[in-house]
Amino acid sequence: MSSPTTIPVFADAMPAFLDDAHRALSRKLAGDLEGIRIDDHDAARLVERLVRADAFALVVDPQVRALCVAREALGYVSPMADSIFAVQGLGSWAIGQASGFARRDEILAEVKSGARVCAFALTEPEAGTDVAAMKSVAARDGDRWRIDGEKVFISNAGIAHHYLVFANADPSLGKKGISAFLVAASAPGLTIEKVPMSVDHPLGRLHMKWCEAELVGEVGQGMRLALGTLDVFRTSVGAAACGMARRALDETLRRVRERVLFGKRLVDQQLTQARLAEMATDLDASRLLVYRAAFLKDRGERASTEVAMAKMFATEAAQRVIDAAVQLHGGLGVTLGSAVEQLYREIRPLRIYEGTTEIQKLIIGGAFAASEGP
Ligand SMILES: Cc1cc2nc3c(=O)[nH]c(=O)nc-3n(C[C@H](O)[C@H](O)[C@H](O)COP(=O)(O)OP(=O)(O)OC[C@H]3O[C@@H](n4cnc5c(N)ncnc54)[C@H](O)[C@@H]3O)c2cc1C
Fold first, then answer.
1. What is the value of pTM for the model shown?
2. pLDDT at residue 374 above 90?
3. CATH number at 10-96
4. Ligand 1 centroid vs 142 CA: distance in angstroms?
5. pLDDT digits (tens, 9 = 90+) for 89-116
6. Domain 117-220, classified CATH 2.40.110.10, yes or no
7. Does 184 contact ligand 1 (Cβ within 6 A)?
8. Who's near 105: CB < 8 A, 6+ residues apart?
9. Parts of the chain belonging to CATH 1.10.540.10
């Protein structure tokens, strides 16, 4: 069975892109998050631990490197806590950006303290990668709005206090009519259906029957706010993948040092060392790409290609690292309750959400195709 584990101070090993404040944050989180079990799926308890670590303060006016430092630690100790944390940012970033939103400061104070848990509702049954194909519509009702439509694969569903919902307020304008709205979890007309997934995270489907909503920003700002949100948070998906991969590597090192085969520890077999070399190199390459992208984002540079490379490489590499970890654990690696078995299921969605691997390839390839010269 998995057991609590000591969290590494990740930032110490990345001097080029991180500074003393990041290293201090990394050390603080390693202490504050200690003892969380990777198999603890009690959402209320995990939110409480995130509150005690003051983690939600990092998602308001986020710095990308600080987000990455936090997600690397969270991915290591608890992929579910990592998901709750990330979605707190996805479901609130637009509120901080939208022009003229009167309740901005009040809401962001609650987001920061953890009194309010957020969710981000963009995807629909027929609009995932192609988000502009969304069918949810919004109509004015006095000084409020009402939304009719459906959203799927919504993280934090059932534990969130609000859903940041994207819907079209003027379908005659096509995607220029897409706007952002706040829908309270208690809004009449909203029903939430739990969607079981391969890991026991809060994930759901929202059914909105002309449910009450509050416009965030202006009509037509939705695509800018949705894509802006993903632009800020996408790099940190790669960081979470690095945390999970590092956990898999550490669990593996523990196991191969103990396991004796043919009179020799598994760690001393050359094929094992070759595997460990591949795992460690994949992990370090991922971290370099992630922190390069985060560094560029924090400097205010356009870095879509670097961000896409970081997200794509780190999530794909983490899948390879965790698969190798399962293999080196032998039968234990596929036993329910072992950390690597859980990581094997936890890593998979990271290659899908916030832009699939294929979409990252299109971004990177498209940038090179459009560039001039060799
Ligand atoms: C665990 C989890 C949590 C999620 N949380 C949220 C959330 O909180 N909020 C939210 O709004 N959404 C969320 N999502 C949804 C996620 O963002 C979508 O699943 C994702 O965008 C892909 O959309 P889709 O599932 O409709 O797949 P599709 O868009 O149907 O894509 C299917 C496949 O086609 C590929 N593809 C797409 N375009 C091309 C192309 N041009 N060429 C070649 N291949 C292509 C894709 O890469 C993919 O492999 C979550 C998903 C998961 C799995």
1. 0.96
2. no
3. 1.10.540.10
4. 35
5. 999 999 999 878 889 999 999 999 999 9
6. yes
7. no
8. none
9. 10-96
